[in-house]
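Encode chain A's predicted structure.
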Amino acid sequence: MQFSTLSVSDLNEYVRRSLAGDPMLQGIALRGELSNFRPYASGHWYFSLKDEESRIACVMFRQHNMQLDFKPKDGMKLILIGSAGLYASSGNYQFYAEAMLEDGIGVLYQRYQVLKDKLLKEGLFDTSKKRPLPLLPRAVGIITSASGAVLHDIKTVAERRFPNIQLILRASQVQGEGAKEDLVRSIKELEQLEQVDVIIIGRGGGSMEDLWAFNEEAVVRAIANCKKPIISAVGHETDTTLSDFAADVRAATPSAAAELAVPEKIEIKRVISSMQSAFHQEVNTRLLQYTTIVQDLCRELALHKPDLLLQAYANRLNDALRSLQALTKQSIEIYSAKLSNMCAALKALGPGNTLKRGYTLAFAEGKPIAYARNLPEHFHLVFQDGKAEVRLISLKMEEF
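Encoded structure for chain A:
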């Protein structure tokens, strides 16, 4: 029997080409659980994908993994898109991943993007609609599972920052069937409580399916329309849900949410004390300034002796009044004498004296007649003791 002798390199290269040339090993969608994930400084990722019975070594080069919007973690259920091949230098059979999806995320992610685009166009996520968090809430509403670590973390931080601050839990289903409806009811119930000034809504991390209730349109709209400011603390820092976009503030963790919602009592006391000191200093400064001003005014008043000035002005006013009264009386007497003289002159020039001297006046239509040529057929003659109505019989013109 004759044997063909190959080098290790020849054999590995042959197997590599055989695998690379097999169309059944190209464009494969491979499902499994991520294990032994190791990101390298070069940017390449090396890991294993396993199921209940087997595992396969995998690699995802930097030019492919930089397109992902999530960071893989051991234990995640994944779907890899790529091809099987051989790394000739080491003879290792491995899977070359060109795309990576969380298992089941394909349809969900598409729904996520469609709803996100829709709500984004409606302006539901606009920063102008975000409400500010209260400085010191009367009570903090919490929407989460009653048994999860989220509640414990929030309580721990709140108690440390502001002991005895009121926390009101509305235990809610955060995953699975009915979670969407329960979350909406929780938001509306806490919104109606007058003492609740801010609400924290959240849950622990998980897959996209686990967090999906916080991507439901009804929940997102309830958060956006809530009259109370809401802090979203859903999942881990790398998880992003539509509820995060709709909330007024997004916190990376439940502990961070509690720090945002609950102020530090010691810090508030320090600020109040500082403000009081500044206020007292300002009041004292103002009092000193105004005291100096009043003292200056008092000295100015003392120098000018306003009471004496007022008395002098009063005396001058009285003198002016007396002068005015005397001048007025004198003027009245002068004008009265002038008026009497004028009346006497008018009387002397009046028709009465003429009539007393034996003359007669002729009137027609209430007007005196100065010329004989103007005599009408009927006219009146006025005498000293009466008048007579006469009719013109004849007229003889003469010059006097």
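The chain has a mean pLDDT of 87.
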